[in-house]
Amino acid sequence: MKRLTIAPRTLVAVLAANVLVSALVATSVFAMTRTSEADASPLAIAVVGDEWSAGFRNRTVWPTLMAERTGWSVANFALPDSGFVADGQGGHAFTYQVDRADAVDPRVVLIVGGLGDTGLPDTEAIVVGATDAINKIIVGGRRPLLVGPTWFETPVPASVVRVSDVLRSTADEMGVPYLDALDPPLLTRDQMWPDLSGPTDAGQSALADMIAAWVRTQVIR
To answer: For residue range 106-129, what is the model confidence (pLDDT) as tens digits?
Structure first.
């Protein structure tokens, strides 16, 4: 039987090919490991909202509960009495909260609310405020998600429906996911304080679960 003789140049080429394949495999494994590590990082969310998210006599609020129950990293920038136009007790509307949220480098900015804007005579200013807030989020490289104002009984007041409708239209035009929190309302009357000023701790818990469930449908594929 003849021995198979490999020319030196051929041998060098084979060895080089083996080295190249090994390097490519190692690179692929490294890339997969880095991707897995990135995927394993908790979802970073910044919450923009009003007193229903900031808390009113609550021991804890839904953004905190959502973080505890999901493992996500949730930073809450909500301020009382604020809205897309309403500037709250501190003189700051939602756009101010969006600017502050940028500092924590979130993947998602979740805007929740709109009740503070229900007293406006028309909706034009709400469209402007919502558009401004959403554009700030997009320009900052974040993912905007929008949850409209919620209520606790039916029929929902016309002023609340009007704000929800204009926010939905604005979100649709800008390609932003929108959660209609009125059909049905996310809360019930027994989940509100007796003076109806905001959600009780049970109401905050309900909001945490329902909003988290919706967020999963938008960002966890």
So the answer is: 999 999 999 999 999 999 999 999
List, in order, residues 6 or more apart from 97 with CB less than 8 Å away. 48, 49, 77, 78, 79, 82
Structure tokens at 195: 């003076």
Closest of 15, 97, 24 to residue 54, by C-alpha:
97
The Cα-based distances of 131 to 11, 71, 117, 144, 207 in angstroms read 65, 30, 15, 11, 25
Burial class (CB in 10 A: 0-12, 13-18, 19+), 140: middle
Is there a cis peptide before residue 184, judged by omega within 30 degrees of 0?
Answer: yes
| pTM, two decimal places | 0.81
Q: If you search the block for the tokens 């495999």, which residue do you land on?
A: 25
Place of tokens 């035009």: 173
Residues in CB range of 169: below 8 A, 6 or more apart = none
- Partnered with residue 45 across adjacent β-strands are 74, 108
Q: Which residues pair with 144 in a beta bridge?
A: 109
